Each structure stands twice: as C-alpha cells, then as structure tokens.
Structures
1.
Amino acid sequence: MVILMNKKRLRRLQKGKEQKGSIVYWMSRDQRVDDNWALIYGYNQALKNKSPLIVYFTLVPQFKEATYRIYKFMLEGLNQVSQKLESLNIAFVLKLGYPEILVPQFIEENGISLLITDFSPLRIKQTWNERIKEKISIPFYEVDAHNIIPVWEVSSKKEYAAYTLRKKIEVKIGAFLEEFPKLKKLRKIWSENTSPIEWKKLLNKVEVQKTEFIDTEFKPGEEYAMRILQKFLKEKLTSYNKTRNDPNEEGTSDLSPYLHFGHISSQRVVLEASKIKNVANLKNSFYDEIIVRKELSDNFCFYEPKYDSFEGFHSWAQETLNTHRNDTREYIYKKEEFENAKTHDDAWNAAQIEMKTTGKMHGYMRMYWGKKILEWTQTPEEALQIAIFLNNKYELDGRDPNGYTGIAWSIGGIHDRAWKERPIYGKIRYMSYNGLKRKFELQKYIKTYL
Ligand code: FAD
Ligand code: FO1
C-alpha cells in the first residue's frame, strides 16, 4: 500500500503533463536504498500508477577534483545499491555521461511519465536540474532526502549562524524526525533490455587522476555505514563531547564519507542515537553537529549563490580582509607546496598528510588547516581556491556543502563572529600552533603522520 510521506519533503520543479508510463528516480546525492525519501516517493507513485520504477544514475566522467579512489568508493557503493534494488523489483540503470543529455534522452526513449531527483544545494546539481527541466515536458520533482527538515522548510533565508538556525530546527524537528517506512517488493520489474553494468570496466572509463593512495580503510556502502554507526553509538557517543576535538583520539563517528555519498541518512543516525539510553538530548554536541551544523551547510549553499567565493562572505568579513590585503605575509606558499605538505609548519603538514593518506582529515585540524592557508597566501581569493581544490581532491567527504561551508567559516568567518583584529586575518578568528599544543598532545599527532 501507498506509504504516508510528508509532502513538504518534495518540491515541484515542473508541473508537466500527467501521462501513463514508468517512473524514474534520477539518483545523485543520496546513493542508498533504505531511508531514502526520494526513492520512497518514487515507490509510492509506482504503486499508485501501477507502473514500474527505475532508478537511473548518470556517471559523469569527472566530478570536480574527485580522484580514482573517490570514484572507487562511490562505484562500490552503487554496486550494492543495484543489487539491493533488484531484490525489490526496482530496476537500476547506470550510464556513463552527463545528466543534462542522458536523462531527457532516457525519458524520451522509454515513455517515462514522472521524473524524481534527490536534492543538493550545490550549483552543479541545481544547474543539471535546470538544463533537464528545459528539455522535458513531464512532471519533475525534487525531494530533500539529505536533511531531516527539508532546506526550504526549516528556513527561507541564509541563516547568520548556528544559533539562529538551531532555534528554527528545535521548533520543526518533531514533525520531521520520524521513522522511515520499509519498501516492499514491487509487483513487476521494468523489463526493457538493459545490458548488465560492467562495474570493473567503469572505473577505468572515468577520466580521473590516480593519486598514489588508492585504497582507504573506509569500506563503502549502506551495510558498512550502519555498522560504523552502531559501533560509534555503542562505544563512543557518551565520550564524544570530551574526545571529539582531540585528533589523537578516534572520538568522532567517521560517518562523513557515508553521509556525503548518501550511503546513510542523517535522519537514521539521529533516530538510532536517540534510542541510546542516558544520552542527553540536543545538548549532546553530536546532535548539534549532525543536525544543526550539517543542515546549516545546506542552508548556506542553498541561499548563498557565491558559497565558494570571497563575495559570499558577510560584508564585515570582506571589509576586514580587504583592509589587511596588503599586510606582509611572513610565509607564502604555492598550491603545489601546500599539496605536498612542504610548509614550515609540521602540524599543518601532518594534517595534509593525514588527508592524503587516509582520505579524511580530523575535524579539529581542518579549522587550523583552512586558516593557515589564508595566512600563507597572497590573497583570500587564492586561499579559497587552494583550500577548495585540496579539500575536493583528497577528502572522501569532499565536494560537499559541509566542505564549502567549513572553508568559508575558516577563511571568511561565515557563521562565526568578529574577533580581535590582527594582521592578515583582520577580525577573522585566528588559530595558532601553540593553541593546538594547549588543546591536545600535538607532537603525538605530528609523529603519526610525519
Ligand atoms: P563527527 O564529529 O562524527 O560528526 C558527525 C557528522 O556531523 C559529520 O559527518 C558531518 O556530517 C556533521 N558535521 C560535523 N562537524 C561539522 C561541521 N563543522 N560542519 C558541518 N557538518 C559537520 N565535512 C564534510 O562532510 N565534508 C568536507 O569536505 C568538509 N570539509 C571541511 C573543511 C574545513 C576547513 C572545515 C573547518 C570543516 C570541514 N568539514 C567537512 C566539517 C567537519 O570537519 C567534518 O564533517 C567532520 O570532520 C567529519 O568527520 P566525522 O563524520 O567523524 O565527524
Ligand atoms: N553524482 C552523479 O549524479 N553522478 C556522478 O557521477 C557523481 C560523481 C561524484 C563523484 C564524487 C562526489 O563526491 C560526488 C559525485 N556525485 C555524482 C554527486 C553527488 O553525490 C552530489 O549530487 C553532489 O555532490 C552535489 O551535492
């Protein structure tokens, strides 16, 4: 039977003409079967119209600076998605190429009656949506399967800081933090002849750089993401407040690569966490990160078109950085020197090496890492460009609203306040090497990676 679903989770991108025919969920950000509101909506419509459901994935030859190991992680996750969908009689079709070409073509060739996609605030995805909308005449819906409260629901504007969004989240989360329905096997699978996907060959067809580190300890996919979650909740949630900012501890969840690729839903994470007894409510900083900080990033990227440039900073930040544009920089490094961890600072170099070798830099070091790039480049614009490039090339969780927002926080004080004025930074919050030493055993961290 049709599943109840809060209609506020979807947005109509195009009315289109109702007609009979198969239904397509063009999957992009939320690459999972369980707990996926976009898939649930498609499932509902397929039940209502008694028509087959197809999940369609367009594999783009390159995606920003994503490397071989990032595509490897993603494709292995998609392979698991295709197997899981088959057991539900939901077809999975994957094609190499660009969505603005492939999606309208697939709709045309197969008499598709409804197009659904998941939501991402990033310019690349919003542009894909626009270009597809111009070429199709069927109904087209976007479903926010990534946030607990849909971005357009929780706020209609760019929020100033976490505390302004937190208030709105606390009011609305009750209506949206609900259990997910389970999908049942559909009656019939879309039977058009789709050639089997040659997963091994695909990885060699994408045009991506092979970095020296091909594998990471992160195993991809939904099942593994759930295992990581359960382990974190059992062993680390209660000590999270204390250990999360110590890069020598493994006190955080390590969920970000899975959240980025949508292998797990943050709503699932919070539902499972709230079942753990004696864990404080929203006061536990884990909730603040996984709900408020994470959803604040989508808010920033959705309502700030210039989320990846200097002009996207608040005016106070642009002003202060402009005032200090000509301050002498004691150190200046080029992109390659940063990339190869060749600065004078062994803490910064250790963080860069951690990111390159493991594919995931510890969250506390990311703040220091971002801020030092501002301090050791000629202009804030160049700092942004280098930080985004490195973050997108090496972080498994990169190319994500959290990344653009984290970098804009570090370099442009987004969601932060003005601090005591100083050279180069102006009133942007400063972080120092000695500050790290006061926070945790810095030499131990440096030895781990250098
Ligand atoms: P946990 O502490 O276990 O947090 C759980 C989840 O909460 C995270 O996976 C993430 O989804 C969310 N979260 C935690 N901290 C933040 C935060 N500060 N902002 C937004 N969401 C948060 N995060 C990315 O997912 N991708 C990135 O590319 C990225 N780049 C960053 C760059 C800089 C310069 C900074 C300062 C932060 C960046 N972050 C990024 C945010 C944060 O550092 C990571 O989300 C976190 O370290 C991921 O590790 P974890 O899942 O073990 O975190
Ligand atoms: N989305 C796609 O629809 N097709 C892709 O081939 C694709 C590759 C890709 C590689 C790395 C990465 O971090 C994300 C990638 N995504 C891809 C997209 C993605 O998950 C989101 O849609 C975007 O990150 C926008 O938020």
Note: Residues 244, 252-256, 259-260, 289-290, 293-294, 297, 363, 366-367, 370, 391, 395, 397-398, 400, 402-403, 406-407, 409-410 surround flavin-adenine dinucleotide (ligand 1) (CB under 6 Å).
2.
Amino acid sequence: MATKKSRTVDALKPFRSDPTGQELTTNQGVPIADDQNSLRAGERGPSLLEDFIVREKITHFDHERIPERVVHARGEGAHGYFEVYKPMSKYTRAAFLQDPAVRTPVFVRFSTVGGSRGSADTVRDVRGFAVKFYTTEGNYDLVGNNMPVFFIQDAMKFPDFVHAVKPEPHNEIPQASSAHDTFWDFVSLTTEATHMVMWLMSDRAIPRSLRMMEGFGVHTFRLVNAAGKGTFVKFHWKPLLGIHSLAWDEAQKIAGKDADFHRRDLWEAIESGSFPEWELAVQLFSEQQADTFDFDILDPTKLIPEELVPVQRIGRMVLDRNPDDFFAETEQVAFCAAHVVPGIDFTNDPLLQGRIFSYLDTQLSRLGGPNFHELPINRPRCAFNNNQRDGMHRQPIGAVPVSYEPNSINGNWPVEVKNGFQSYLETVAGPKRRVRAESFKEHFAQAALFFNSQTEIEQEHTIKAFSFELSKVSRPEIRERMVDVLAKVDATLAARVADNLGLKAGRAKAPPKLNSKISTSKALSMLKQEPGLVATRKIAVLAADGVDVVALNAMRSSLGAQGVQLKVLAAKLGSLKGTDGSAVPVDHSILTMPSVLFDGLYVPGGAKNIAALSASADAIHFVQETFKHCKPIAASDEGMQLLERSHVPSTNDEAAGVVTGDNGRKGLPKVFLNAISRHRFWEREKVDAVPA
Ligand code: HDE
C-alpha cells in the first residue's frame, strides 16, 4: 500500500511558456510557413474557407475577452512574499504564521471598485487590496480594501449598492464615479452607509500610490489555535512608505494625462528594485472584550478604534516581482473570501457570510467553469487531491480508476486528514428570521468619530468632496436628503455643504450625541501619521540650454542617495547644453509629462536657462500647478526668478514647502529632502492668487 507523501510549498512550479528559439505553429503544432497572407483563389481573388490557419488565428482572437469582474474590474497585480516576525501559535495554528524563517509566496491584486477594466486609476473610489498567500496548508486569501469599513451591513444589499454606484442604467454615465444621482439616492436612504461615505469623501479615496495606502480585512475574523481556542482578529496592512494622497484637482487631471498612473507607478517601482513593503498587523481581542464595546464587532460598518484594541505588527510582505503576463496572472487570479486555512475562521458578520458564497460563484461565469483553481496563478503550491472530476477545461489526467470515497480499489486514497480544517466550535441557536440586529442600528457615531479625528485640512477636503459630488446630483431632493444625513454627523459639515449646494444652512440640525467613549482616534487621520520613506518620489527639473549643471548635479546626488528620482524636463527630447558646456540628457518632454505626474519641482539657475523658461507658458503653468497642488518646490539662484514670473512666492519658506537660495546655500538639497518627506503643504490651498 502507498504511504502518505508530504505537502510542500512549490511542489508545483507555475507553468510558464517561452517561445524563444521555437518555431511558429498552429495550436495543433503544425508549422506555419506564412503568417502574413491568408489563402486565396488567385492573387486578387476571394479567401478560401479551407484556410484552417487563418480561421484558427481569428477564432482564437474573437474569444480573447472574458467577462470583466462585476466589481473591482480595474486592477493590477504583483508577486512577493510574506514573513511572520514570531510564532503566533498562542492564537492560531495557521502554518504560515509560525516560523519566521519561512517565506510564504503571495500574489497581490490592487483595484478600484466601480470602474470598468479600462477606467482611470486615480478616480475617487475605494481600493481593493487582495492578497493570496500560497501556504503549505493551502491558499489563504485576505480579500480586503484600503478602508476599514463597508457601505452596507448585509450581503442582501450588495447588488443594490453596486447597481447604485455603477454608471446609471439608461445611459451608462458616469464611468468610475460615484458623483451621480443613483449613488447618492441609495446612500442617503441607507444610512448605514454614512460612515463609509465619510471615508470615500476623504483623501483616502485618492491615494498618491497603491504603495502608499493601508489595507484592511474589514470584517472581524477569528484565529483558532491548536487547542481550538478562538480569538477575534481585525487585519491591517501598514505601508512603509506612509499613507499619502493626491489633491482632488490633481487626481482628475491625472485621469486624463495618464490613466495608468497607479499601475505604472507600481510596475516601475518593482522594476527598479524599490520593492513596496507592508507590515501585517492585527487587533486581537476576546469575546468578553467585544461585549464591552458600544458597537457590534459583527457590523462591518464599524471599526475598532486603536485606542480600544492596539494594533500589533506581526509580519511583513514585500512585492518583488511584476507579473509576466497580465491576463494569465492579474486577470485570471481568482480571490475568494472563502479561501481560509486551518487556524483562520469566519465570524457571523452577515456581509462576510454572503461573501463566502459569492466569490466562488462569480468565478464560474468569469473564468468559465469549476476548474479555475487549476490555472497556474490560482493553483495551491502544495499538493491538492480530492474526488472531484470533470467540468470545463479540466487539466490533470486522473491516473487512477476511482474517484469516490470509500474505495478499496485504490486503498481509499486520498485520505481524510485528522488534523485538517476544523470550524471553530461556536454554539449557535436561534429562530430562523430575516432580521437586522438591534446592535447594528446606530449609524452615525463612528461617522462622527472619523470626521472629528481629521485635521482641519482633511475636514476641508471632505467638505469639498461632498460639495463636488452632490453638485453633480441633478435631483434637488436627493441633495437635500443627504444634507439632512450629514447633519446627524456634524453640524458644520452639513452647514458648509448645504451652503455650497445653495441650500439653506438652517437644514443642519444640532450635532448628534455620540454614544462612543472615544471622541477622536489619531489613526484615522492620514496627516497625523509618520510620513514614511521618500524613496521613489519623483521630482521634476525644469530646464533649458544654459542650465546650472553644478547645482543640478549636487541636487541629483543628494536626492538620489535617498532614492528620490530627479527627471529633467525640457521643451524637446535630446540633450541640453549646461553652463559648463557639458551635455545634460533630457528625460522627458514637458509635452508628455505635466506637473501632476511628479511629487515636486526643482528649478536650477543659469541666466540663459531661466530666460528661456520665463518665456515659456508651459514652464510657468508647470510651476503654478505644482504650487497649487501643494508640492515641495526648490529653486536656486536665477531659478527663483521663474517662481516670481509665475506669481509663486519665491522667498525661502520651509514651513510652506518652498525652499530657495543663492549659490552659497549648500544645504538646499537637505532642506528640500525634508520638504519632500512632508509630501504636501496643504496650507497653501489658502493662497488663491495662483492660477492653474
Ligand atoms: Fe467583494 N467581490 N463583495 N468585497 N471584493 C468581488 O469577486 C462581494 C466586499 C473585494 O482583485 C467579486 O472575483 C459581495 C467587501 C475585492 O480579484 C465578487 C460582497 C470587501 C475584490 C464580490 C462584497 C470586498 C472583490 C467580483 C458583499 C472588502 C477584488 C469579482 C457581501 C473587505 C478581488 C470577483 C480581485 C471582488 C462580491 C463586499 C473586497 C462579485 C457579494 C466588504 C478586493 O465575488
């Protein structure tokens, strides 16, 4: 009788095709002599039906598209690995959370939610943050978002919510935007969405980079240890680069100038060896603790303030390889909220319960049948065996004559594993009812907690975001209803938005009475966090012939030492003549790379250089737009004149992120680096005089 084999990671190497050195053939392996011309009767005659080569090629082409994901259609992926810092055996038996020496392979897919596959990256939206861990005990998918709560409490409402946020059904407008009637109609009638809507109207919805956003598992899950003891858990991902956003005007412009902005940013960072990294963090708490909270931990519209349960960092994830084939990997990857491993279990969160069903179901139509787990990107890296068989696109060839259990013909293989997945032994009883728990019925306290935890600047951005979106709503009664909802969150917020909508400020009622003991939480504000590393930030240098190469090189080497990239922009590609006669290569033409694609600007001196730039409307617009979007600006010597010409304050003001100085100012790169690390100088938004 055969003995049991071990289940090791990487037992199956992913299948990769490479035609290098190979002959061109049909799908049947027939060598192709002519890939340029179809078969015809006579030189100028009709094509022949018997041309199986052209028919195979075109038929395959005709079927290249598969249905896009119903939500999260637009996304980008990367490979990497996960390492735990110390054994988590006290809480979970999950194999990949035990040994710090083990690297578990991962595949991550980031996404927007509402837009179609070809929509722009920088739209205001939630971002998906889905991680597939290929562990020794099977695939574990942590399918989360970059916001810690969700719009609805029960899976029953998900199709309604998605129909409301997607483009309107009669004209399919607008693409990838919640700024339209049906979305605001739904959320103003469904007040459980209020907390999540606050997040959506915050700068979290317009991240600077996918590498600079947090991730959250959203639901409360359960860790289960070898003794069967359960501990509740909320999962977080904390980025090493800090949490940073774009300006709203900038995000809209990038959508037109480079719709692939986030995809490109992730791709280029990984290609250049600047591997993005996140720490996996957990909030761990017991059932007894959960009972003391004034919200229900099963309600996915609530977060657990870090002041109540601290966040512990337990491991790190590094993304170090771009996919080879977008379709085979990023498009065909099938995440599933039901993919858990021994030691991780669900809770009764009614949204999570619906997700456990939905993800497998959606793959059946998206990937065309029940065997999508056999695709290389979805295959576990450990052995997997069972008695399931057949179905569309089945790949393995069963090498034994039985596929049932019990069997005597093949020694009863594959056998059950005594220590296999065990559901947490939760006692459940109750009448069958369609009901929303009483403990889910408070909808505003955490929305207010979120708003109160923001800095004044962040609150201002949220007020503007609400005003923008609601101004696009055509039905006045929806705008009014939403202002009434906001009045239950914060009186000033409601009054300011009402004013911007031309509604009477009197609609705002008294601020709500909070039922939470915690009135602000530092972790909810992006601007109250540590800024993180500056590596991979992109700084534009505006230059023309006669640019001060000494200053430019000094800036380049100081910034480069921290991983900041300096890119020289000029009116044309090619090279410029520096002050010392040397050639300065141009990285980009200003035509193709507007200011919104950079994190800051440096204007070096050189009299001739500045004379040319001062006469360029493009250069002046570039400076003004950089200023308007609150990005760090440095200028040396004559470079300061370009700032003046652009009506941008040119005196050195480190607090305002404009750092300038004459030749003698040796420390300029250092203060500029400091400014870059602060990312944005939002106070500048109060300077209205600068156009762009
Ligand atoms: Fe999803 N969701 N979702 N979702 N979701 C999908 O699965 C669904 C929810 C999330 O990059 C779909 O393969 C239901 C919450 C991400 O491939 C689908 C409900 C959270 C991704 C689906 C939710 C998410 C999806 C569409 C309410 C954050 C992209 C295509 C009960 C915790 C994964 C697909 C990727 C994708 C259903 C709510 C995150 C239809 C029914 C809450 C990141 O199965």
Note: DSSP finds 18 helices and 18 strands in the chain.
